[in-house]
């Protein structure tokens, strides 16, 4: 059963310490290998998200009713969204030394998902976990414990930034439906 703790609320998390130079390099090096397979990795991430957290599909009118995993994997709309997710992550990873650019990207993503798509902020946390899980499985040769810890720290920071955007927008729960 899917658990949605704190749904509709914005977490108040302490921002993790900034990434060290070593952590930035580990993230960028590992991402380089992932991004070479960006389409397959992105599809794997979204399919895992939708299979493990079916309520996350409610935000996607084009494929929210697709139950079959193979059909999901082949969906042109899912593939297109997977590419957008991977490109956004790529922009963030390439810009780790430029906090203004990273913040700018996350503000655009946060505003769009809060205002236009009305996505509960908890789904960003869920997606972060799914990304880490898929990368650990598909890229085990580069996703060592130390690299995974750096990614976890990055995702915690990104989540704090996105939830801050939601708070600035005065986020209120928009939906009671979770599946």
TrEMBL record:
Keyword Iron tagged: yes
SUPFAM superfamilies: Globin-like
A GO MF term: oxygen binding
Catalytic activity field: 2 superoxide + 2 H(+) = H2O2 + O2; Fe(II)-heme b-[protein] + nitric oxide + O2 = Fe(III)-heme b-[protein] + nitrate; H2O2 + AH2 = A + 2 H2O; Fe(III)-heme b-[protein] + nitric oxide + H2O = Fe(II)-heme b-[protein] + nitrite + 2 H(+)
Record keyword Transport present: yes
Residue stretches making up the Globin domain: 18-167
Region (Disordered): 1-21
Entry-linked InterPro entries: Globin, Globin-like_sf, Globin/Proto, Globin_lamprey/hagfish
Source organism superkingdom: Eukaryota
Keyword annotations of the record: Heme, Iron, Metal-binding, Oxygen transport, Transport
Its EC number(s): 1.15.1.1
Family: Belongs to the globin family.
Designated name of the protein: superoxide dismutase
């Amino acid at each position: 059963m899917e658990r949605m703790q704190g749904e509709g609320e914005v977490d108040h998390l302490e921002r993790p310490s900034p990434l060290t130079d070593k952590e930035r390099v580990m993230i960028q090096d590992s991402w380089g290998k992932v991004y070479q397979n960006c389409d397959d990795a992105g599809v794997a991430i979204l399919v895992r998200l939708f299979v493990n957290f079916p309520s996350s599909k409610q935000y996607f009118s084009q494929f929210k009713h697709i139950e079959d995993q193979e059909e999901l994997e082949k969906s042109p709309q899912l593939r297109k969204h997977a590419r957008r997710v991977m490109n956004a992550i790529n922009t963030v990873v390439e810009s780790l030394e430029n906090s203004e650019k990273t913040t700018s990207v996350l503000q655009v993503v946060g505003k769009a998902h809060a205002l236009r798509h009305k996505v509960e902020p908890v789904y960003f946390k869920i997606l972060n976990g799914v990304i880490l899980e898929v990368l650990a499985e598909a890229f085990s040769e580069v996703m060592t414990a130390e690299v995974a810890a750096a990614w976890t720290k990055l995702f915690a920071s990104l989540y704090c930034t996105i939830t801050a955007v939601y708070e600035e927008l005065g986020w209120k729960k928009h939906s009671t439906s979770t599946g």
